[in-house]
Amino acid sequence: MKASTFFKTLNFFTGKLYNAGYDKFVKERGIETREDIVYDAEFPEIRLGDFYRAKSVAPLPVVIYIHGGGFVAGNKRDRRYYCAEIAASGYAVFCVNYGVAPTHRFPFGILSVIKALGFLDEKAREYGLDMSRTVLNGDSAGAYMAACVSAAARSEDYRTLIGAPETAVIPKGLIMGCGNYDLIELTGRRSTFDLLNKILIDLTGWKDFSHFDEYGYRKVFNPSLYMEGSNAPEILMIYALRDRFCKGHAELWIKAFSERGILCESISDGTKVHNYHLRRQPQPSKDAKAKIVSFLNKIKTL
User: Fold this and answer.
1) Rounded to whole angstroms, what are the CA distances from 192 to 11, 195, 197?
2) pLDDT per residue over 211-244, tens digit each?
3) Shortest CA distance to 64 belongs to which of 175, 165, 215?
4) What is the tens place of the pLDDT at every residue in 91-115?
5) Which residue in 2, 106, 116, 140 is a FRET match for 66, CA 20 to 30 A apart?
6) Are the CB atoms for 240 and 176 separated by under 8 Å?
7) Strands (E), the chain
8) How far apart are the C-alpha atoms of 79 and 66, rounded to whole Å?
9) In the chain, where are the structural domains located?
10) Is the distance from CB of 56 to CB of 67 less than 8 angstroms?
11) pLDDT number for residue 253
12) Phi/psi of residue 42, each to 5°?
């Protein structure tokens, strides 16, 4: 089975689960929405975003949301309810499509989100945005990409290695949910249908992992190495202790952050459910959402 087939099927069902009640919620909360905004005219069918904004005459802080999908699938519309919830807490949210593998390989998606940052900065007055309080937020593959963009915003070395321009904005916050953060470690993991190796082949175009050291972007596969305590964003990490796809990855990064003096808030649950925080009803999901809102409220004061 192709990795893209598996994740497209998974996203079809989880998208329905995550978005149930979306129309009613948006109407009741008076959330302003705009769909399919082109944020890069060079790729108008790929680099699109959906915009959610709470009612306010004042400029609002910003969340850029990056959907998951194993780097090979997913769509911004799969996260509509979550983005509307975040908007309802007093934020403007821009949820992006970014181009998935194998058509668009690493680091195309990261460069896409950097483009989105520049677009929003240019549109800040028109859209009523306070770009000085910007947060990157993603789930699964999107969580990893959010970390990469945060590293690119802070490290000239990282930007040089991936061929990225200086970012228009340096995000103050980073929220990562159930991400695969060590892509090199994934090359040795067993998985159903050998999905993890198939994802990496699609993402990188590299098939011989015994010589992965020769892959041109290997040095940037761990973006946490490009974050330092004095120059790191505020970080919140959400993870499942027995996650089917990325068990143990969050704990490794939390430990690494602590060793380098980087403060990292976190919330976890003992479930195996990947992206448990995107669900609506179970109490652990509600607890995670409350933690996210509390974190965002803190960013508003910085």
Assistant:
1) 17, 6, 10
2) 888 999 998 999 999 998 888 999 999 999 999 8
3) 175
4) 999 999 999 999 999 999 999 999 9
5) 2
6) no
7) 32-38, 48-53, 60-66, 92-96, 129-139, 173-177, 234-240, 264-269
8) 9
9) 3-300
10) no
11) 93
12) -70, -30
